[in-house]
């Protein structure tokens, strides 16, 4: 199958079957052995088209008379891909973007739709003046279209960070995320892992932030990386690796991770404990607990015990029992939009607004499980105050038995001196956005 036909098939899976982009793409690559060059082209075309989302539809609307919703889904997807190639893929000549889209339309459409695809794409290629985003009305709409984000999200970012930072953040979200790996120190050293990766043709470097992290800038497909199956490493972003270090678990500790699936931080905590002590990995979803068990087995970790429970009840079940408790709560994930290409288009404002209440309830329950003198860590992969510092401040105001602990002793020198709560911002720190606060129970 040629690359564009493959991209069309994957995009239809995403748009019509509501498949997650990374899952649809990996599924295709698992079932079809491809050369690296083809894999890269398909990835760029699929991820780029998904990220550009409604901007492509807005452009399409400027060039057709009928409502976009009336265009057949296959033809609409061919057009989205075609516009993406025309306007965003510098290395694809306009003639190739048009001709290849027309060929796809011939396979899936009839004479009329072939002519339609041909006419629309050639007119965009010839005259781009209609793609003027300043005509959309207002600076929020302009930023949303120019940087391919939903307008409500741009508004939220503008309120939180102001115009300049919003643009920088949106631009960052459109960049490609490098693959970040955490070395499983129970099976190999970081030096051994790095040597192994170099032999396998993976281009990688050590992280600025975490001693176990290796950041890959060029690599084969994940399915070809047998060292992941062997448990020598696992995929995890650098910033999320800071959490286990902030918890700073001892080999004798009982640690409870109240929202733990799929187990990135749980298995990191367990490894830092040298496979000793006990980590209770809790999650509300039984099917996700299986992922923790699989990860632990692959990594050779035996000090994890799983528990399926709503974290809002965990305080009652383990009252005053744990040396350390992690509440890595469900969040809006606005710090990882670069990595999850479809996330910005799947989220809703209403769903995000409900999160702080749930996060607060989970934090309160997690706090109950901490024993006096013990440690409570709250973390998210988001960047807005209402899910981060506001939740922690509200909690501290209501629970004088907890005090905020300085973070610097647990952070790399490059991140020290930023205050008692750490907020990593993607466009500032060049990593996934992340929030961490560490508290101690005084009595
Ligand atoms: C941010 S993710 C956790 C990521 C995980 N700590 C890791 O590092 O791999 C949040 C998790 O919370 C779980 N969750 C959502 N609501 C929950 C609840 N009420 N109680 C327990 N877990 C919950 C979700 O299933 C999800 O796995």
UniProtKB/TrEMBL annotation:
<keyword id="KW-0963">Cytoplasm</keyword>
<dbReference type="InterPro" id="IPR029063">
    <property type="entry name" value="SAM-dependent_MTases_sf"/>
</dbReference>
<feature type="active site" description="Nucleophile">
    <location>
        <position position="381"/>
    </location>
</feature>
<keyword id="KW-0489">Methyltransferase</keyword>
<dbReference type="GO" id="GO:0008649">
    <property type="term" value="F:rRNA methyltransferase activity"/>
</dbReference>
<dbReference type="GO" id="GO:0005737">
    <property type="term" value="C:cytoplasm"/>
</dbReference>
<comment type="similarity">
    <text>Belongs to the class I-like SAM-binding methyltransferase superfamily. RsmB/NOP family.</text>
</comment>
<dbReference type="GO" id="GO:0003723">
    <property type="term" value="F:RNA binding"/>
</dbReference>
<dbReference type="InterPro" id="IPR006027">
    <property type="entry name" value="NusB_RsmB_TIM44"/>
</dbReference>
<keyword id="KW-0694">RNA-binding</keyword>
<feature type="binding site">
    <location>
        <position position="328"/>
    </location>
    <ligand>
        <name>S-adenosyl-L-methionine</name>
    </ligand>
</feature>
<dbReference type="InterPro" id="IPR004573">
    <property type="entry name" value="rRNA_ssu_MeTfrase_B"/>
</dbReference>
<feature type="binding site">
    <location>
        <position position="310"/>
    </location>
    <ligand>
        <name>S-adenosyl-L-methionine</name>
    </ligand>
</feature>
<keyword id="KW-0698">rRNA processing</keyword>
<dbReference type="InterPro" id="IPR001678">
    <property type="entry name" value="MeTrfase_RsmB-F_NOP2_dom"/>
</dbReference>
<dbReference type="InterPro" id="IPR035926">
    <property type="entry name" value="NusB-like_sf"/>
</dbReference>
<feature type="binding site">
    <location>
        <begin position="259"/>
        <end position="265"/>
    </location>
    <ligand>
        <name>S-adenosyl-L-methionine</name>
    </ligand>
</feature>
<comment type="function">
    <text>Specifically methylates the cytosine at position 967 (m5C967) of 16S rRNA.</text>
</comment>
<protein>
    <recommendedName>
        <fullName>16S rRNA (cytosine(967)-C(5))-methyltransferase</fullName>
        <ecNumber>2.1.1.176</ecNumber>
    </recommendedName>
</protein>
<dbReference type="InterPro" id="IPR049560">
    <property type="entry name" value="MeTrfase_RsmB-F_NOP2_cat"/>
</dbReference>
<dbReference type="Pfam" id="PF01189">
    <property type="entry name" value="Methyltr_RsmB-F"/>
</dbReference>
<dbReference type="InterPro" id="IPR054728">
    <property type="entry name" value="RsmB-like_ferredoxin"/>
</dbReference>
<keyword id="KW-0808">Transferase</keyword>
<dbReference type="Pfam" id="PF22458">
    <property type="entry name" value="RsmF-B_ferredox"/>
</dbReference>
<keyword id="KW-0949">S-adenosyl-L-methionine</keyword>
<dbReference type="GO" id="GO:0006355">
    <property type="term" value="P:regulation of DNA-templated transcription"/>
</dbReference>
<feature type="binding site">
    <location>
        <position position="283"/>
    </location>
    <ligand>
        <name>S-adenosyl-L-methionine</name>
    </ligand>
</feature>
<dbReference type="Pfam" id="PF01029">
    <property type="entry name" value="NusB"/>
</dbReference>
<dbReference type="InterPro" id="IPR023267">
    <property type="entry name" value="RCMT"/>
</dbReference>
<feature type="domain" description="SAM-dependent MTase RsmB/NOP-type">
    <location>
        <begin position="169"/>
        <end position="442"/>
    </location>
</feature>
